[in-house]
């Protein structure tokens, strides 16, 4: 007994604090959150009446919540598309033999080291919705002023102050910030492909396009999947960037579930806030769990 | 074996600590404590962490230290988000049975949540002991009284239906700054002239300032009784009068700066008026403190008047202080409330904060010109509760309505706003 404890005892002891802390502060709180989401705790006054999944059905039927889900979809598509496009493009350019690769790599990666809150404050100014042609246009700042001064005044727009497409403007700073990261992922992917494969393909008479189509791209697909998962789950949870760019949390144009949860929570509607939290958790789980299963299976192989 | 024991002990200790967080909160404040005999620390929770608010609180603490030298003031202020951050911190503390000795809350509907949750003490006895009922205006006492009981002591009063205007801009448009419009139609006609002269007529900022503008237009269009009825169910949100009011709000929005949602708070919108980039701004009278700080002169640089159509109505909000159940130092808390309610305390505080004293016996002889006019109006006007500042409806109701108003800023759908406002009212009204 004592002997066996000696072999696994230290391991358990080492893991115990983590298991207990994660157990209490993650899993127990998720359960507690789920419990609150099934009650009618809609105001600050304590009430614990069990209402089943009523909060969920009310939320899903609420046009404002549907709008926030729609916004989340647009945000995720634009954010994913933008980072993958620029990340791949930059990685491909850097992969060509050229001087100053290290320099450009740092340049592209740098935005990632800035926090969303800090860059959001600057982007609030850059994405100001005032246009030079509107009354008070002399106060125009940021991108609209820049576009006007380089003769592209017709491209000025509302940015995020638009109920349908405004959320796509929020994706712009997010793309700026994370394309470098996706680039780093792709660059690692490119480096992992041995030169012999390319040479073999070229000897067999492959054109450059066919080389990419049949040799390089298939080997990049695991990298692509990782990038989609990482950017995708960040997009679903994106809160701080929106909060920093948009002054008022309760702004309909750019409402996503995460900001709506905050508004409900501040308004003491704990049950609805908890229900939105659960919906977000499920959305993220749908993205992350298949990926975890995929990687653990790959590791076993 | 010993290792496993110590591990178990560790788990047990952690468990006990967590369990300990949930306990407490059973003790009740005894009415026999005399504030004069109280000693120790008094923890006071506010969101007055900087600017004129912090200066006002400091002035108040000065009076408190003079009145009660045996007590130490413990500042528990939480900054950020116009009080929203503080409110969530406070809610957590109250829930955990760990209240401060006294906390700040907007008088009116916002207080209702705390009363319903049985978290604050009835202060009727305190009012009687200190003879406060006769020193506060009756209108205010009526708004503080719930089922015949009073739960808080107001420290200051603000007015939310004031228009601030740039004198130069009005003159340039050929308007007389001393003769403001008296109804919405007249006001819109003036705004047309200002628009023609090349200036933005009306400055507004993000979501909550739009709600405040909406509230002013509702008040002007429906009158004080109609406006009050929106919150107690006597006015039908689906009525034609409300449609007219929302149409007027839509018209008012058409005169505003297009970048309203990008302005970070009320101050940038007021700044537009100060700089002459806009003519009017509907804002609470804390704007007065801003004009004063920036060295602007009333009458020559800026002017103010009640929102057209709301003359004789005072759209009020007030801060007040409470005695939470289970406060660690109830005697000290009562001493603090005594200072809050006293004429000297109110003079010291409001002079600096730019608001007006709730206590009518406070000395206001060296207050600013605006403050004096507001004191006069408060004495004679009809008083209604502000929507945007939590006096008229509970926070959850205000939140939902704010979302609807924010949405309206984009789609301008009058019927849509009316429908959602009606269904929100139906959800919350009892």
Q: What's this model, at a glance?
A:
The complex is a heterodimer of chains A (301) and B (430). By secondary structure, chain A is mainly alpha-helical.
Provide structural commentary.
The complex is a heterodimer of chains A (301) and B (430). With 301 residues, chain A is mainly α. Chain A has one domain: MetI-like fold (Orthogonal Bundle). Helix content of chain A is 72%, strand content 0%. In chain A, α3 packs parallel to α7, α8 (195-203) packs antiparallel against α9 (208-237) and α11 (257-266) runs antiparallel to α12 (270-300). By secondary structure, chain B is an alpha/beta fold. In chain B, the strands form 3 sheets. In chain B, strands 1, 2, 3, 6, 11 and 12 form a 6-stranded mixed beta sheet that branches. In chain B, strands 8-9-7-10 form a 4-stranded mixed beta sheet. The radius of gyration of chain B is 24 Å and the shape is globular. Chains A and B meet through α1 and α11 of A and α1, α3, α4 and α16 of B.
How many β strands of chain A by DSSP? 0
Give the beta-strand count of chain B.
Answer: 12
Order of helices and strands of chain A: HHHHHHHHHHHH
CATH fold call of chain A: MetI-like fold
CATH topology of the largest domain in chain B: D-Maltodextrin-Binding Protein, domain 2
Topology pattern of chain B, helix = H, strand = E: HEHEHEHHHEEEEHHEHHHEHEEHHHEHH
Secondary-structure content class of chain B: alpha/beta
Count up the domains of chain A: 1
- Gross morphology of chain B: globular
CATH architecture of chain A: Orthogonal Bundle
Most extensive interface: A-B, 44 and 50 residues
Q: Which residue ranges of chain B are poorly predicted, with pLDDT under 50 across at least 5 consecutive positions?
A: 5-31
Task: Note the beta-strand portion of chain B.
Answer: 5-15%
Low-confidence segments of chain A: none
User: Given the C-alpha coordinates, what overall shape of chain A results?
Assistant: flat
Compute the average pLDDT of chain A. 89
Identify the quaternary structure here: heterodimer
Radius of gyration of chain B: 24 Å
By CATH, the superfamily of the largest domain in chain B comes out as Periplasmic binding protein-like II
